[in-house]
Every structure is written in C-alpha cells, then in structure tokens.
Amino acid sequence: MLRIRVVPQGRLARHSRLSAEGIDMTMPAGCRVRDVVSQVGLFDEEIKRVVVNGRPARLDKAVRRNDLIELHG
User: Fold this and answer.
1) Rounded to an integer, what distance in angstroms lies between the CA atom of residue 35 and that of residue 21?
2) What is the pLDDT of residues 12-26, one digit of tens each?
C-alpha cells in the first residue's frame, strides 16, 4: 500500500468534496493518478493539470509512496 497526499487546486479546491488543505490517502501499489482521481470522486474531464512532487504529470503516471499529487481544475 502507498501513502500519498492529494491537494486540490483552483476550482477543485472550492467545488469538490476534497478539503482545500488536501487529504492523505492509502492506495494500492501499481495504481495510477487516474485511479486516485476516481477514488476521490472526480472525473478525468474535471482535471485540467496534474502536478506530482512539483513536476507536471499525466493521469496515467504511476503513483509512488509519499507522492504529493496536486489536481488543478
């Protein structure tokens, strides 16, 4: 299991069920950012940009332990 932090940015910080401060999550090994998006109740289409550990990423990027995932909407 991978422990990660997910932080919404922009419109998602105001209009999603995620808290603006973000949430800590545990995800299974081998998951992708797309799986995280689904797990927090968002749709791929709502995500305008993904940043993982300060670097631009795609929804199909593999998630690693202690990743900080910022979802921009």
Assistant:
1) 20
2) 888 777 777 899 999
